[in-house]
Amino acid sequence: MRKNRPSRTAPKVAAAILYLAGNPRYAPLLPPGLAEATERLLTAAGALKPKHLERMGKPWYQWLTRTLEAKTSPGHLLYLGLRKRFVQDEVETALAEGATQVLMLGAGMDTLCLRLAPEHPDVTFLEVDHPASHGAKREAVERLGAERPNLRFLAADLEGGGLAEALATLPGWRSDARTIVVAEGLLIFLSPEAVDRLFATVGAAGPGSRFAFSYGVWDEEGRIKLGPVTRVLQGAALKAMGEGLRWGVREGELAADLEARGFRPVGPPERTDLRARYLLPAGLDGPLGGIETVALAEPVPPVG
Description:
It is a single chain. The protein is α/β, with parallel strands linked by helices. The protein has a single domain, classed as Vaccinia Virus protein VP39 (Rossmann fold), CATH 3.40.50. The chain is built from twelve helices and eight strands. The termini are far apart. The model is unreliable at about 1-5 (pLDDT under 50).
């Protein structure tokens, strides 16, 4: 992300959700209310115009989107939708198991906290984002009249550090509370040093806290794994927007990377396998691609 400019990838991800919602095959896989809330937020933010909505509802637009995706990044849009489903399921599971705080890092135009805050008035929801994106999101929420006493926003440069200090001085935020932290589509854009700081901040959260995040997978040459055409198109586009790919984990080494940070995976591998968890039970299959994959981790409790 370039300084003083909202992320350009955030509204694009949100627009992908609206595309999936218009596909009868995949719409049932999305979290309830996601598409409607996304449409309202993007419209309030000025990122979505009536002409855009009309266009997305046309059969030719759906066909064109499917065709372009198949030639550049097969299954990428579906991955984005299932990633939203995974994050919401894990947040709701954490709340059911006793978490009292939800911390969403790099929230962008995501609507999870907006949708869940009214349902959980005793839970504190906090969105942290770059000052430019933070401002655009807050203005849109105010236009919608969607402010909630338990939904808060914090402007912070997650690359530059200072998150732990900002949380420590934030009124009402408890460093000892059980917290579910979300970093969706974020870590891949941060430097390794910034990722280290975020893991340290999550590791200092209260007992029973969890970290749901997405990450890029390095190939044998030390590059984020992308398809041959995808690498050229997506890599060039992201760099042009000032959002180059910077952090990832070598294939098959996530558990070791987490262990080195004092974390461990939560649940069996199927829990973070989006195909096994969502597609196959729905009787669906097909390409499920993306430049990231998802993970769920928790700090390892101290011995003794």
